[in-house]
Amino acid sequence: MKISVVGCGYLGAVHAASMAELGHDVIGVDVDERKVAALNEARAPFFEPGLDALLERTLRSGRLRFSSDMADAAGARVHFVCVGTPQKRGEYAADLRYVEAATEGLLAILAPGDLVVGKSTVPVGTASRLAEMVEQKVPGAMLAWNPEFLREGFAVQDTLHPDRLVYGIAPGEPGQRAQELLDEVYATILEAETPKVVTDYATAEMVKTAANSFLATKISFINAMAELCEATGADVKQLADAIGHDDRIGRKFLNAGLGFGGGCLPKDIRAFMARAGELGADQALTFLREVDNINMRRRIRMVELAREVCDGSLLGKRVAILGAAFKPDSDDIRDSPALNVAAQLQLQGAVVRVTDPAAVENSRRAWPDLDYAATAEEAAERADAVLVLTEWQQYKDLDPVAFGRIVAKKRVLDGRQALSREAWTAAGWSYRALGRRTD
Ligand code: UDX
Questions:
Q1: Closest ligand 1 atom to 327 CA
Q2: pTM, rounded to two decimals
Q3: Average pLDDT over residues 165-173
Q4: I want to staple 363 with a disulfide (CB 3.0 to 4.6 A). Which of 11, 324, 326, 387 is the partner?
């Protein structure tokens, strides 16, 4: 099928290449000409494992190309809207200007029978508003909402093998036709018996924000337990292991530490709260404010812990920060807890050196005043404390004995429970982690 994908960021670039991999004829459209040029040369404009190879393969097959001209999307039967919905400046609400611009841009090239498919995360109510616009301007054209659940670092795998498909469709015949078109797009995925939920617009929109709110709540729950563990001398990792054995709870997303960041969870829970307020249902989501508070407190606590291990003062102390991306296998630094802690430490007088296997370039652009190193070893030279703030495999694999020879003081703060407490302690390090005993 001929498909267009509007917006070629984290979501759209992966979606476009994945749709071509499934055998469709795909045109990716983005207003950023540099991004388009890079993508046409099979260079992903961000770090995502497997994406370069997928781009290379699908571009070579002739089924994928990228353009900065919306007119090139004409002739496609299904048009995916994959643009960003960032947090508005100074407000909790989501900024919908890109979604609106993309949909309006499509109106000029849509033909009757075409389907616009929203994948961006939007406040509930957006889809029905956009559907009205599409139907009015191009009678016979349709809109569906098909939220995306991909995780950065696993984006290709999650797109090609999603754990579920959700279609938000209009009632009646147009919705039926939209569903048939989506079934055709996802035929290969559906053959693999992927669960499919067909529902109305509002539910489809809410599935995404509810899922992200649940995940954020789960992380903040265990981080709240970490605070209690610190107060009681209990150990949050063992606690998570033990409660995680209960199938109803599950061990995933119970890793206590520096908390969540990135381009999705923080802004999505805030936009959800803002929307609930507009709908007069703010009470239902006041708990998310607490989820957000617990999460932000982790960053402050990490700075305090660093001060504590540096004998009560950060002034002039050399601190190595391992990890700048908001999660491993990504170069995304949006709302990165690691960079936030690094900046706070520097403001409080520490001499901070940050390293990351993929995110140094992005970090330097956003935080030019921080000092960066190419490797963990370089960052940790003569350090008074080492903070592991993103759990990259490279850092998990560090040899505590060899690494101990580089630093001035063998003090490590494990912000992501990434290291073996036993191995590091045995190598003579003082090991500290949020919510864990010191021994
Ligand atoms: C998230 C959702 O998982 C995904 O379904 C949605 O489509 C987009 O938002 P992503 O932002 O890529 O994906 O990251 P995710 O793996 O969910 O991690 C989010 C943050 O939570 C990271 O900062 C991570 O370090 C943190 N986290 C995760 C924890 O602190 N503890 C955990 O146990 C799990």
A1: 25
A2: 0.96
A3: 97
A4: 324
